[in-house]
Amino acid sequence: MTITQPDDWHLHLRDGPLLAAVVPHTARCFARAIVMPNLNPPITTADQAVAYRDRILAARPQGCNFTPLMTLYLTDRTSAQHIRDAHASGVVHAVKLYPAGATTHSESGVTDLRRCEAALEEMERIGMPLLVHGEVTDPEVDVFDREAVFIERVLTPLIERYPRLKVVLEHITTEEAVRFVTLAPPRVAATITAHHLLWNRNQLFEGGLRPHHYCLPVLKRERHRQALVAAATSGNPKFFLGTDSAPHPRRAKEATCGCAGIYTAHAALELYAEAFEAAGALDKLEAFASFNGPAFYGLPRNAGTVTLVREPWRVPETYPFGDEVVVPMRAGERIAWRLAS
Ligand SMILES: NC(=O)N[C@@H](CC(=O)O)C(=O)O
Ligand SMILES: [Zn+2]
Ligand SMILES: [Zn+2]
């Protein structure tokens, strides 16, 4: 199966020596990727985004023209000038909202959206999308309900208050999110990961506790997975590919308090192909992976193509990750599709 070369609209590449470990996995398939800014410390200025972009470019394999699309990390102190500088840099394509404490490296995130009014108004004016980790951090709210409650308490008022702001609800996991995005105006879209299309929350406890299946938002019950598959394969242009590939060293995952994130970049498109094939909707993969994202971001479609062949292969148990290793999704197991090189 040959399709227009896809892009990854939600990706974690980390930094420093780790870049060399993960950039080639993404670059072998995707032409562009929206790179998340949740480094430690986070990417909060245009200058930092430009420097981070240069480090990513330097980690590309020779002859590869993968293009990272940079993002800024929204904080309580992000000003309208920060947004103008980001826009003027020409390399920052979006701004990311992490509610403080919601996920990995969200300590510097937003404590109260009212502090971000000037920044959000400027983004609305410029047309720069707000990307959202959509979970409340209220400890009273059940961890499986945090996305649905976020939509009700935060997202619905947000899109009313900023009537032209473009918003991407990232890595959606619930039928509530699918319904919200479907009914919202065209300026509201969502990314969907391969793991949330393939797995439900039983995978967290399959024969024992599975730290490598733990991510945020956490896997949900089967009816939610089915709603995500229906959305991804519907042809609705509001839904597009974002892997949320989030590598962590094995040591940090297999720990007393294991961190959140699933590594999928080694086989991202192949995993999506499995999910679309299982739904009898392989013909819908190209729009989801290659058309809907650029249309939302106002970018051209890629000129090249990639080819997937139906040829099973076995995923390694680990990949090198700096001085450590990362355990990829499906480690030691088979994947039905292979990317032809
Ligand atoms: N998805 C995750 O579980 N983790 C991401 C952060 C995020 O996207 O929320 C990470 O940076 O590790
Ligand atoms: Zn997130
Ligand atoms: Zn993420």
UniProtKB/TrEMBL annotation:
Q: SUPFAM superfamilies, from UniProt?
A: Metallo-dependent hydrolases
Q: Which residues bind Zn(2+) 1?
A: H10, H12, K96, D244
Question: Which residue positions are annotated as catalytic?
Answer: D244
The cross-references to PROSITE patterns, in alphabetical order and at most eight, read: DIHYDROOROTASE_1, DIHYDROOROTASE_2
Which BP terms in the Gene Ontology apply to this protein? 'de novo' pyrimidine nucleobase biosynthetic process; 'de novo' UMP biosynthetic process
* A single MF term (Gene Ontology): dihydroorotase activity
Q: Which GO terms describe its cellular component?
A: cytosol
UniProt KW Cytoplasm keyword: no
Q: Which UniProt keyword terms apply here?
A: Hydrolase, Metal-binding, Pyrimidine biosynthesis, Zinc
- Which residues does this entry mark as bearing N6-carboxylysine? K96
EC number, as in UniProt: 3.5.2.3
Q: What class of enzyme is it?
A: hydrolase
Q: Which CDD domains match?
A: DHOase
Could you describe the subunit structure of this protein? Homodimer.
Q: Which family does it belong to?
A: Belongs to the metallo-dependent hydrolases superfamily. DHOase family. Class II DHOase subfamily.
The protein in question is named Dihydroorotase
UniProt lineage? Bacteria, Pseudomonadati, Pseudomonadota, Hydrogenophilia, Hydrogenophilia incertae sedis
